[in-house]
Structure formats: C-alpha cells, structure tokens
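Re: the pair you flagged

First of the two:
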Amino acid sequence: YGADEVLEVDDQVFYVPRHGFLQASTVFSDMFTIPQPLAPEVIEGHLERPIILAGYKAKEFKALLKVLYPTSDSFPPCAYFNLSQGEWVDVLKLSTVWLMTKIRLHCIKALSVSDPSNPLHLTTSDKVKLGRAYRVPRWVREGIVELVRLPELSLDSIRELGLETACQIFAIRD
C-alpha cells in the first residue's frame, strides 16, 4: 500500500504513491497488479525503467495529481482543490481515459457551474466541444439548446464546433 511507482509523462519523471492510482482507477489497478517478470531488469515502475504514459502532457498529469493527492491547502474552504478551468479539463480528460469514475464525476460537477462570473463556468461552445470529447451528453444538450436560443448567432461564433454542427444549429433556429 505504501509502494511508490515511477511514471514518465511527456519526458518528465514522477514518483507517485501507488495507493491513489489503485483506489481511483481500474486501469492502473490492473496495471499495477499484473505479475512482474522474474528478471528484475525488465520490471517497470522504478527509476531505471519508469512506466511511460505516452500521449499525455505533463501539465495534465500534474493537475490529476493535485486531485489524487490533495494537500491540507486543498481542503475547505476551497472545496474544488483550487484548480483552474484548464486544469479541471485536463483532469477530466485523464479521468475519462483511465476510468477514474469518482474523479471524473467530481470534474463534471466542478465545471457545471451556472454562474457566468465563476472562472470555472464553461462557454456554450465549450460545453458542446468538451461534452463530445469527454462523453458528457448533458453538456452537449445544454450547449446546443443555448446556441439555438441565442437572439443573434454568427457562423464565426460556432465555427469551432464544425461545419455540420453549425449547419444543424442554424437549421434548428430557422
């Protein structure tokens, strides 16, 4: 339970306690409990041979670590670990990929604020983009409904959603 793992993300090496990953993710739980070969030179998870998490950014991983291993500064009055909107999106990405269900639900809750003055509030377009990317159907639905109900809407304001989505939104509006 107290064992550490050495992980490499984006050419950065991280020494992390195993327990947080075991508790939060079936992906890591399975990875860490796979029987290791008898030859010590091929065992991954130590300094000479870290477990490489390819395709991810170190900044995304650091944001996830803030949630997995909070410090006393992270707790009330700051119930959301004092992460920026971008960090929450990074944690949502990794928690979705690595099947970290509780963390993923917490990310969705943190980013679902309705107050536009809250720095975690998602724009209408962000709801659609992020909802599609990270499988949050409620955000997609809310974003499209908000776009359809806007009094004025330009193609430039929704171009980032893709031409097909933009055309569908204009068709619904008409």
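Second of the two:
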Amino acid sequence: VGDNRDKLTTQFQRSWQQQEAQLATLDAEFIAAVIEQEDFNAMYYDPLTLLPRKAFYGKLLKMLEGKPLALVLTSADLDNFKLLNDCWSHAHGDSAIMQAADCIYEHCEAFNAGQSDVVCVPFRFGGDEFVMAFISHEGADFKQIKDLS
C-alpha cells in the first residue's frame, strides 16, 4: 500500500491506530518505572529501548580512564530505516527500534554469559544507531567478539 493508509482494510487501520496508541504510552510507562526505582538514573538510559544511551557511554569512558583495560567498539544501524518511517509511521519505526534493541541486548547477554574476560555493553546512540562496547583487560584477545554475530 506504500504510504497510502486508505488502501488498508478498516480492521487493519483500527489495529494500526491501537498499536500507535500503545507505542505513544511507552514513555509514560518508562517514567513511572523510573520513579519506582530511585537508584535508576534515567539520564543514562534511553526511554524507548531501555538500553544505555550516549551519556552512559561518556560515563563509561570516565570509569575506564587510567585503568589497564582495553575497549573495542562496534556499531550497527537498521538498513533502510528512513523508508520505514516515511512510508509507514514513526510508531512503526519505534517498534522496529525496540525489536532491534531487544535482539541486541539478548545477544550481548548471551555473549557475556559465555565469557570470563570480555564484557559487552550495548548502547543506543540515537535514531536507529546502536553501538556495542567490548571491555577487557589490556592485551586481551578480542577474537571471541565475532561470536556475538
């Protein structure tokens, strides 16, 4: 149907509107969860994905400063994401970002569970951009990073 929603069935249009309404309430639900957890600093976490955001990356760099640790970064984004936002809706784009973030988080957690000397920390850098920071002792072999893919 391209960008013409009028071509959708009435039932699908209602379903679409319900999905957009549910996605619009996510920020309010996130804020309520943050208020309940006083030790959770919302400044460091993305409200859409709940992954750490750029501000946390800056904090991480300061925490690593002067320590004998190595840092390797890898980045990813969603292919043709603008097309999704332009032809469907921003709510559907948000849904795609949340699904990608969930997948990235699950893979990082699985990677961390199988490692003893490298830790993977996923970040949402903005829009559809994600970064994974791999942290280990200086001189560590980072060949196991390919296991994450």
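The radius of gyration is 19 Å.

-B.
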